[in-house]
Each structure stands twice: as structure tokens, then as C-alpha cells.
Amino acid sequence: MPIDINEILASARGRQFDLFSDHVHPQWTRVLRTIGFNRNYVGAEGPHLIDAEGRRYLDFMSGWGVFNFGRNHPTIKQTIKDVIASDFPGWIAFDAPILAGELAKELQQRVPNELERTYFCNSGTEAVEAALKFARYATKKPGYVHLKKAFHGLTNGALSANGDDSFRAGFEPFLPGGRMIAFNDLDALERELASGDVGAFIFEPIQGKGINIPDENYFQEAERLCKKYGTLMIADEIQTGLGRTGKFVAYEWEGIDPDIVLFSKALSGGYIPVGAVLMKKWIYESVYSSMERAMVHATTFSMGNLAMAAGLASLTVLDDENLIERSRIMGEKFKVGLKALQGKYELIHEVRGRGLMLGVEFGKPKSLGLKTGWKLIHKMDQNLFPQAVVIPLFDDHRILSQVAGHAIDVVKFLPPLIVTDEDLKWFLDGFEAVMKNLHKFPGPVWEVLKKLSKHAMTARSREQSKNPS
User: Fold this and answer.
1) Is 22 left (phi over 0), alpha (psi -120 to 50) or beta?
2) Distance between CA atoms of 155 and 36, rounded to whole angstroms?
3) What is residue 275's three-state secondary structure?
């Protein structure tokens, strides 16, 4: 008897958070309920989510960068349907999948440098794992350098190259050979590379945790150092790729020639998880050096027909709708709008980013009342202040956004590349309203922050009592 998915969805609607808490992840549901993100979504279209009451929400989070093309894009959706209807066989194991060859060709044609081989996997973190493994084998050097505040995934190898202690704590020991250095510090990079045992320097062209932009010529100098010491450059384009920054890949802004480039997230079209590792031919052939070594690195579910088709459809939409250029144009409009607000509100310290990958950093104010509130909240919890933006944006204006990292006062915005002028106005109007309220001290926003601080401190105290050191 076939199942009825619509019936399952309808019967569970309204109790999904209890169901999820009971059987999947109770701590996550606690988070959602605490910050008021426990909504009952029933639909999605383009840059919008739709709840059970028919209200639309503006998604400026895009699933951490998955939905470059919006949700339920008709071209991608139809392609997925066509693949299923074709009954074309997949995962034969001993086969050369047609769609994998086509997607690899299309990706290789779009990157600005020569990356003649592609390895497909299922996610961004798997792509990172493969890249580190390939670099180690190709160079015969076990070491790798990564950057503070980097995020490359949370599986064991990828976590070893993660630059945020909040993710790393308690999972030690990591892969041997890792060295973490500060972003934009060329002297530190050369010190590590000069040891002679570093096979890879892995980096995000723009760091997602904080929207950190490289200094001028930083990556060009890093490339020179990597060539000098025989180290491969791994560009993690998992969030920055496929037009997000106004270029197909963000390293185009830097004019460099990385040896390995990683894709995932938006390549899925928002439907089927996929990862891709593009690399120079000699790296690939050093790993897969003979017929006996043809399976030395593989994964069961890579190169599935649906994933490959989603990737092909995503690239088609990117081209047909001129979304790379659109990302540049709309991103500039977005940045201009945010910078105009920076001039009006003292808590806004900096607006930065490229294309439609933007962050707003908040800083210590000068006026006495706001300074008092700032000190109070930061003394109670270093992670809390950005919630004074994220929560009212969502509660009062139905705009979904995200904090850009742990213990930093940055809120991050990743709207779909299809975002319209009307959507930007919706956002900027809502953001300014939040800023107006935030600049009233004392005021309701600060009272909410104090309550959240107390909740966080109580939760930490509870955890410490359960797990005394």
C-alpha cells in the first residue's frame, strides 16, 4: 500500500516540534522555541516561506546559502521530475554515469582556471574531507594550514580545519598536522609553510563566520608562498560559489589560481544534496594512478542522477537568468541601503561583503545609555547582542536572518540571487525599524535581551551542575 505524504504532513502539522523533540533533537527545538523561530511553514516560493496562516516570510538566510535560486524554482523542479519519470538507471556502481560527466564538464568550463578533473560526493563537508586527503597524497606532506573563524564542516577531518573553538571543543584529538593561523596574516602563513611539511592551505575566499573580507593582495601573496613551498591551495567555495558574490567563484575577485576548488550548497538547486571537488589533473592522477587504485576514494551515493540533474539545472538557471550579474547589481543596492542606515545609527559599526553575501557588524556605541546596555548584555553573554536584531526582524517583520558566528557582533544576510527590489525594500524598511527600537535605551528590545541572557546563564549553570569538571 503506497504511503500518502500529504496525509502524513497534514496529520503531523502543528505538532512537528514535539515530534522532532521526542525523536530527533530536543536541544534544537529548545533553541527554536526560545528565540521564537518555531513557526508552522506549509509552503515556499522563490525568496519567501509561507506559514499555515498564509503569511509570507522573507528568507535572507537561504538555508545557509543553499537557495541561491530561491525555493521551488520551476526549472529545477521540472528537471527533477523529468529524471524520475525517465526511469533512467542510477547507482549501478560499475558504470560511468552520463549526468556526472555532463555536470563535471559544465563546472570545469565555468571556473576561470584549469581544473580538469572532478570528484563528486554528497555534501560540503565530504568535499573538504576529500580535498585534504587528496592534497596529502599528492604532495606527500601531511600538514595543512587553516584560518581562525574558518568553517569547513563538522565531520572529523573537516572539523580539524575548523577555526572556531565552539565547534571543536570536546572532539579532540583532531587530524595530525593542522596549524591554525589568523586571517590576513602572511607572516604567520610563511612561518608554517617554511616547515616544509604542509601539503595544503585551505581557505574560504570570504569567511562565512563574520563575513571577513581578505586584505588587498592577501590571497595573491598567499599563492606565491604556496608555490614557493610546494603547498596546494584549496578554495572552499561551498557557500561563496555559484554567483553568490557576483562572480561564479569568489576567488575570481582575487585573481588567483587555486589547485582544488570545492562546491556544494547551491549546486543542489535546493533539492538534492551534492558536493563537487574540482582539481588540477596531476593531483587527480597522482591519487588514481592506476587501474588498481581506481577505487581508493569513493562513496556509495555520489553521482546520483537526481543530484547531477539538480546541478545541471542550477547552472542553467544561473546562466539563463543572468544571476551572476544580478547578484552584483542587487548586492550593490543592498549594500548602499545598509550603509545609508550606518550613517544614522551608531550601533552599526561596519557593512561588508560582496554581491549578495553581506554582513553588518555592530560596535560599542558612544551615547551613555546605549553604552550601558551594550556593556550589560556583553557582560552577561558574549553571543547575545546580535539576537537583538535577528529576533525582532523575524517576529515583527517576518524576515529570516542569522547570526554570523559565535561571540561576534555580526549579523549575516544571504538572500537568494533572484531577490527583487520589492524584497530589498521590505528588508531595509524592517531593518531600519529594528534599528530605531534598538537605539532606545531603556526599551523593550533591551528587556528581551536581558531575559534571554538570564535564560542562557541558567541553562549554562544547569549544564555545569550536570557535568562538573
Assistant:
1) alpha
2) 29
3) strand
Options 3.40.50.720, 3.40.50.2300, 3.40.1190.20, 3.90.1150.10; CATH for 39-60+323-464 is 3.90.1150.10
Query: Are the C-beta atoms of 237 and 435 separated by less than 8 Å?
Result: no
Q: Per residue in 294-340, pLDDT tens?
A: 999 999 999 999 999 999 999 999 999 999 999 999 999 999 999 99
Q: Are 156 and 122 in contact (CB under 8 A)?
A: no
Query: Maximum distance among all alpha carbons in the chain?
Result: 71
Distance of alpha carbon 382 from alpha carbon 90, whole angstroms: 49
**Rg of the chain taking only CA atoms, in angstroms:** 23
Alpha helices in 13-97 (DSSP H): 16-23, 26-35, 62-65, 74-86
Cα separation of 294 and 232, whole Å?
A: 22
Which residue is associated with the grid cell 542562557?
456
Cα–Cα separations (whole angstroms), residue 77 to 103, 164, 242, 270, 274: 17, 36, 18, 9, 16
pLDDT-based confidence at residue 441 (cuts at 50, 70, 90) = confident
Q: Which residues pair with 143 in a beta bridge?
A: 198
Which residues pair with residue 357 across a beta bridge? Answer: 354
Q: What is the CATH number of domain 74-320?
A: 3.40.640.10
Q: Over the chain, what is the mean pLDDT?
A: 93
What is residue 66's three-state secondary structure?
coil
Asked whether the beta carbons of 103 and 119 are under 8 A apart, the reply is no
Cell numbers representing residue 374 in the block:
551594550
DSSP string, 336-393: HHHHHHHTT-TTEEEEEEETTEEEEEE---SSHHHHHHHHHHHHH-TT-TTHHHHHHH
For the chain, which residues make up each domain, given as ranges?
A: 39-60+323-464, 74-320
Using an 8 Å Cβ cutoff, are 97 and 305 in contact? yes
Two domains, one topology: 39-60+323-464 and 74-320? no
CB-based contact 68:271 (threshold 8 Å): no
Positive/negative CA dihedral, 297, 301, 307, 312: positive
Q: How far apart are CA 314 and CA 299, in angstroms?
A: 23
- What is the H or E stretch that residue 448 is in? helix 444-466
> What is the pTM (predicted TM-score) of this model?
0.93
- Residue pair 338/428 in contact by the 8 Å Cβ criterion: yes
What mean pLDDT is predicted for residues 401-412? 92
* Cα–Cα distance measured from residue 304 to residue 314, given in angstroms and rounded to the nearest whole number: 15
Using a 10 angstrom Cβ sphere, with 0-12 exposed, 13-18 middle and 19 or more buried, the burial of residue 64 is middle
C-alpha cell at 292: 588498481
